[in-house]
Amino acid sequence: MNVSVIGGGAIGLLYAARLAMSGNRVQVWTRTEDQALALQAKGIVLLERHVSAVVHVEARTALTAESLGAKTMDSDLILLTVKQPHINEDLMMLLQHIAKPGTMVLCLQNGIGHMDKLRSRLPQLSFAAAVTTEGALREDSCTVNHTGHGELWIEKMGETHIPSGMAENLAIKQKMFVQHLESAGIKAFLSNEMNNRIYQKLLINSVINPLTALYGVKNGELPSDPLRRSLMFAVYKESSLILAAAGLAGDTDHWERVLAVCASTADNESSMLRDVRAGRRTEIDWINGGISALASEHEMAAPLNDSVTALINALST
Ligand code: KPL
Hints:
The protein is an alpha/beta fold.
């Protein structure tokens, strides 16, 4: 299978390495030329339980005229692993360039809003939302540390969102892609209830990401202080009420899940804390900003989500 991985972050490198190791042809598209050159020369160094493997992949810099002009392989599957701020016109151009009719694009972003944007901008492609619980840390431009085994949940394509006349074909293809991912050691599942999974992840991110970034603490340190924990609970309460109105199922103790993620990723800095520290644009507009937008749709107020969005934006712009 020909797989393009767009984005050279931790999850992109992890999945690219796994898929290449199991015999697929893999092209990684990176934002910087330095990373593409390093990957091309050195390959991906995958660290797993103190064992390291070097995996050779093809690497290209997205959006240099040379890359786009060059003959690229036709992709059967595209893993879109870039962060929300990079879902922009440059990315649309790249997708148009490397996708062929029938290519499936798995979208692994935090937050909400991007699926509608991608589908309305490129209606000829098949986009499936995906959520991963894999733990991975990028140590340098070529090295990824697989810190915790997780699962990849992929939206099962129904009649909606599929270019006309392709439904049956795509359902068969999706099953085949899942088998390929499984043979690469990626635990992948098709899901009919992706909205619920996306909202569960959004709820967790809406609490942990902005508060770790504002307090400047690691995930595990957030609930250990009583004041921080009360604020966590207040944001959690507001987000969960809004997401419940939008369709989040109430069959799970979501607060316990938030605490469990803080514990299982205790030594990690959240992606938002890392973005703020590096002076990069964060995903706040698609996480807490996304929840505020859902609140407006349901005629609800979202003062805490509005506030953390404004504070993080003040820090990072
Ligand atoms: O998804 C995450 C992120 O940092 O974006 C969590 C779950 C908070 C883990 O760090």
